[in-house]
Amino acid sequence: MSTPFDASAPALAILAELWMAADGTALTQRSGRIAMTLTEILNEIEVEMTQIGELTRMENGIGLVLAIQRRASGAVSLRWRTSRNRMLSADALAQRVAGLPPEVGRWYIELDAKVRWLNARERLVRHARQVMRDLSEERNRGVVY
Taking the domains of the chain in order of start, what are their residue ranges? Predict the structure, then answer.
């Protein structure tokens, strides 16, 4: 017995259904539409990344900026950079933040947590979209599950 899948459901519901579905038939039949919905979600994540990146664009004297990194694969992520455009590792960011006044340091720590979650969401949704695209292609070629 398959559960009907609502491709217009919120992103979390879509990903939960993909993860929990006992029978892939309903998902496979709607894989093309699900892939399109996941593309819309990826676009929303990128807009959110851009907005968060803008929070660090102002000239604040600290020299930490969030930049969007685009890979050849299409993957997008936020990365911390210095005012000299050098990418910072998590350790280097922690060292810089440790030297800031407590309120400012907390702001950067909280922002970094949001950045890490956004980057993780982008990877998860991008992977789910690729799985749905693969299923859609297989369905169109006549592969039966």
Answer: 11-140
Give how far the C-alpha of residue 130 lies from the chain's centroid of Cα atoms, to the nearest Å: 14
Q: Which residues, listed in sequence order, are joined to residue 69 by a DSSP beta bridge?
A: 77
| Residue 37 CA from chain centroid, whole number | 14
Alpha-carbon distance 12 to 41, whole Å?
A: 10
Is the Cβ–Cβ distance between 108 and 97 less than 8 Å? yes
pLDDT by residue, tens only, the chain of 145 residues: 334 444 445 666 776 777 677 766 777 777 788 888 899 999 999 999 999 999 888 766 788 999 999 999 999 999 999 888 899 999 999 999 999 999 999 999 999 999 999 999 999 999 988 988 888 887 777 765 5
Q: Give the separation between CA 63 and CA 97, rounded to whole angstroms.
A: 11
